[in-house]
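Pasting as-is:
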Amino acid sequence: MRKFKKCLFTGATGSGASYLIEYIAEKNPNLKIYGLYRSSGYKKILEKNRNIKLVQVDLNHKDKLNKILKTIKPDLIYHFASNPDVRKSFDTPYEIINNNNLITLNLLENLRLTNIKPLIIICSTSEVYGNLQKKDMPIIEETRFNPANPYAVSKAFQDLLSQVYCKNYKMKIIITRMFTYMNPRRDNLYQSAFAKQIIEIKKKKRKILLHGTLTSIRTFLDTRDACSAYWLAAQKGIIGEIYNIAGEKIISVKDFLKALIKESGVKVKTKLNKKLIRTTDISYQVVDSKKFKKHTGWKEKINFKDSLKMILNYFDKKI
């Protein structure tokens, strides 16, 4: 099992990275954690931990990033930084693709040109696989890319570029392709959007829950299990490998909403909002995560009902 002294995060104040930073900091009090961020996001939460040092920088500025990398000299890097707004990517594809592509190229190229040799976890996404047919299931790491939106195209670029740098420059890279996981800190994801609106209805702040397409079928994973997977990838993952990471529960968006409403005990009226419907959406996903489990020993620990309670409690405290 690998051990690390200095861990660097890009996109540190984002929803996913901030959860993982908290998780790793709690389990490894002697590990020095550095977080690069552009916008404040969840900065205040991370600042409470003295072992976490935050550095503001735009990764589009290659020279500034170079100086920071040479100063910190991390032995582990999690590359989370990206604009992850799928819906917005249909409206502003140039902005999202240009940003996501360049920041990844800047990171890898700076590391290539220095003597720093960290392990790099490239946090890719299930979005690279796009909208596949049932005959293509379950999705394995060798399944062809078929991105269905501009954001997914940018993540496919990050993923493929990382493979090239690993093979040609012998950089220590592991790619994780995380599938749907519940993230309360991103309220534009369907699970969070539903939970937030249910609590708003409970507290008389709205009358109707608005939703987009409900027919999509996805796997489901708790945030805490996602964090343990990311950490095990760094500790035990094989360099050069690509890993699908997904929960075993398969559920439609419609059934997830029903389960969430039932768990809340709140009477909820729902209504379709056409503005929430994506131009192209992923209709069905079943995943094979056997390789990741075999290489790392990772197992899910949080059951579905506890996940529902967690996300409802999060917004109950926040609103």
